[in-house]
Amino acid sequence: MTEAPDITAGRPQPLGSTVDADGVNFSVFSEHATRVDLLLFDHCDDPEPSRTIQLHAETHRSFHFWHCHVRGVGAGQVYAYRMDGPRDTSKSGTRFDHRKVLLDPYARANINSRWERTYAIGLEDNVAHSMRSLVVDLDDYDWEGDRPLRLPMADTVLYELHVRGMTASPTARVASPGTFSGVVEKIPYLKELGITAVELLPVFDFDETQILRTGPDGSKLPNYWGYDPYGFFAPHTGYCTSPHLNTHISEFRDMVKAFHQAGIEVILDVVFNHTSEGNEFGPTISFRGQANEAYYHLWPQDRSHYMDFTGCGNAVNANHPFVAKFIVECLEYWVTEHHVDGFRFDLASELSRGDKGYEMAVPPVLWAIELSKVLAETKIIAEPWDGGGLYQVGRFPGKRWAQWNGPFRDDVRRFVRGDAGLVGEVAKRLGGSEDLFGPQNELPTNSINFITCHDGFTLNDLVSYEHKHNYANGEAEADGANENFSWNCGVEGPSEEHDVERLRVRQIKNLMSVLLLSRGVPMLLAGDEFRNSQGGNNNAYCQDNPTSWLDWDQAEKEQETKDFTRRLIQLRGRYRTFREPRFFNGHLNTRGLPDVTWHGTRLEQPGWEDTNARVLACTLGGFEDDPDLHLILNMYHLGLDFELPRIRGHRWHRVLDTAHRGPHDIVPAGKEKPVDGHTLHAHGRSVVLLAALPEKPEKPEKADTKDASR
Question: 0.70 exceeded by the pTM?
Fold first, then answer.
């Protein structure tokens, strides 16, 4: 068959659509397809393609890749595919259906203005209701010299945020609420807060039109969080102000560049463990219609059914050779083309499963990510578990991977709420969790320390609710964790009682203090610093409404906790001991103090075996320019006297005390308050940090005898 004069064979690599001087090269993977059609649309909203180009195997196929070059087209061209081939769901697992219009898995941008999900599920042709891909010229942008920042992991303070939730509320007072541009307007706030990296909940294209269920009040509940992607190379259409103008790339890049200009890194929460296509009853969007047997884990006994290690209907077969290539190239693309600084991998343990679903000792895709030259200076963070029961905290494959530290979250929550007998576990968490990461010859920087994240209570709700309140999700309270290790301080939910509110503020300060004064990499949840609440909902994945949107009026109202968090981040930066990228090892400083000595109320009596212990103290020997520090954690409900070690020629000075109201809870550098005597009274449920400074002939501070919070 004679080709049209503007159609040539093209090249198999790179995959996707690539603009050159003459036109566009198109390439797509499908091992078992027998027919591939490239559909070209004149406009995003056209119900039918203006042109269909049939690719012929003898000309347009190289091994597993189908490709062609089309002259005279360029950036902004709207396109999609149809494929045909064997449909043998039970034996081979193939699911070709020429009636379904397919996105390019490597598309740099997509458009969903005509998309209706139900038409992608049934038997009819869905061209008039399909999503389409857009050709993007990646070179058409001025980066102004921008590059990934490559900040040290040990100095990182993460801030997890949802792009829409950050500014969707009218209280955000931004020009483009709920978009990449809206987030840019909040960068000055984040810079002032002192965080060094934002971790963005999924920004890959996902189907936010999917209605999961109807809420009890009749409202439609959508896929809000975005953990259900279909376009892994494409910024999410819904976060762009003008996607119909093909601005996806420039809007995302503008945000990254603005963050970098403020000295803040951008880390993407990526979801390679499953896709939006779901199980055998889900829609055909791209992967299923092109290479279902390659992309997904299928049951060996009957490959018409999908293995589900994610709780989302399917599981990506990440260690299939092509799928591993797809994942690594995707990550490298976001680094090279969008200057992204790192990635957090959702349910990352699923990526260590082999073809039959079993855990692999050496998963090729994870090691390919770790060893990639392009990703060598990129931060990689694993959520080291999956929905199928695989739990790999402290033993995640590879050495460079940082890991969300679930035990840190649980141990600190329980200790601060007042549970007894946990001082040994808390000491491990303060020191960087050597019990978890030491056996693998890893470091404290492998530990992502967190107390809250998008999944669970906010920090305010952690100290305001003892039970989840998820009724609005429409699942009859069956969703979300039942055990949250929370304490409501005496009243369930909002309270106007002064004592209850003061205690909640102190507990928030206590939790923040343990988080930021521990070795490892701390992560905060957006809004926790100003007591953002979700009304006790600990699984707000479907709440695209004020429940999940940050209330910026709270940031004005709750100045005390916001300012405390900002000054606490500064305090962490002031003392190197909290940011040391190594575990305690007993080394002595010039004053003869080891890097850590553990205590209780009495020196060197930490009470490791005391099942009633609710207090822990430690002396941290300072090295180089750091002073010696003494940290006291009193989670008993009453005030207690703590012995202080003596350091010749030095006097202890109060740096932090969560029992004090702001701004006196953290003392600025150079204004530390000297403490008289060799004991200190720490109020009930408080954290105190002292610094040993050279003695000066000045009047000492009297030891407190009353609760300073009242």
Answer: yes
